[in-house]
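mind reviewing both lines:
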Amino acid sequence: MLSKYESGQTGEPYYPHVANFRWTEPNSELYERRGKVLALGQSLRVLYAMAYGDTLWNYPLSRTLGLWTFPDTIKYPHQRRSYGKYWYCPLLEMKDTAKFEAKYPLPENRYNYMLKVPIELGTAKKMQQLMQQDLTAYFGYHVTVEKRMMPCWYVKASPETKAKLKSKVPDGKYKMYEDEESNGYFKMPK
């Protein structure tokens, strides 16, 4: 279902990606989101990002408040992030991009979109495929997903700084490792 947004409409919280919520338990409050995509008052830019972007949250990984630990993404897969793997918004290569731009809280160029499938079919991949078909039928834009070199920040730490970043707790849950290219990452020790 697609409809024009009208001022004052409210609804469920907005998730800027298509997730399948298959990790939820039947008694969880998020269980009802399985097999459902809901976007209220979003621009075409956001809808296309949801349909063609990553199915993981595309923002930096936040630490648990006050604990300075990273979440266990094996136990809690919904806390995985794709930050830095997908560009944060769709690139529009067209003369007139006005239909993709919205000024919040004005209702122009904003839409409500809902997709609901049976829970057993509700994988993120399937819901994205259906959403892509809907957007093509409604708006007719040609979309491709490409790999490109994009600008980014590259932070290189000196050996002294790396030493300061390492855990002071010898039996800490996560340890810092480096790969062949000196990229740092955290992992549970084996």
In short: The longest strand covers residues 36-42. Residues 50 and 118 are 20 Å apart (CA to CA). Residues 63-68 have pLDDT under 50 and may be disordered. The beta strands are 2-4, 36-42, 111-116, 175-178, 184-187.
